[in-house]
Design goal:
- This protein has a single domain, classed as Aminopeptidase (3-Layer(aba) Sandwich).
- It is built from four helices and five strands, in the order E-H-H-E-E-E-H-E-H.
- The chain has a five-stranded mixed sheet with strand order 1-2-3-4-5, sandwiched between helices.
- It is globular and about 50 Å long.
- Keywords: Acyltransferase, Transferase.
- Pfam families: Acetyltransf_1.
Length: 156
């Protein structure tokens, strides 16, 4: 059985939006990029810039991941015309905790690939925090290649 992607409805979007802001802020704090104080407000500001029209923002695809008629997570794609080709950037893929470790992340990534192929996307990109080893392993398994590194060394 496959995971399929469908447009979020307004209620799902509102839940996704608030959860994702908190998750995004927490990931930045965990990575050492941001201080905890003010991180949620900073994340909210970034989301407001990226999704000024919310669910109706052009070129942003806010999707529910459905498996066996159950919503198992969310996907946020930005599909756009790059320099020489149509591209997709995965802003967010989140499988709910209860559904992790069951191969559904892999199935969701395959569904994203099919969704992108159906819209003539030639390249998919994404960002992953270095501490998210599970996601890094998934993306490597799916054939993603590292295109650059940002490295840091703590001295104190």
């Amino acid at each position: 059985m496959c995971v399929y992607l469908k447009q979020m409805n307004k209620k799902v979007f509102e839940s996704f939006y608030e959860e994702s802001i908190v998750d995004y802020a927490n990931e930045h704090v965990k990575s050492g990029d941001w201080e905890a104080e003010g991180s949620t407000e900073r994340a909210r500001s970034e989301f407001e810039n990226l999704l000024p029209e919310g669910l109706d923002t052009s070129n942003q695809y806010l999707l529910s991941a459905i498996y066996n008629n159950v919503e198992i997570g969310y996907v946020w794609l930005h599909i756009y015309d790059g320099k020489d080709q149509k591209k997709c950037f995965i802003y967010d893929i989140n499988i709910k905790d209860a559904y992790r470790g069951q191969g559904l992340g892999t199935k969701t990534m395959r569904s994203i690939e099919e969704y992108c192929k159906d819209t003539d996307v030639e390249t998919i990109g994404l960002h992953v925090f270095g501490h998210n080893k599970r996601a890094v392993a998934l993306y490597n398994k799916m054939g993603f290649e590292t295109t650059n590194y940002r490295m840091e060394k703590k001295l104190k």
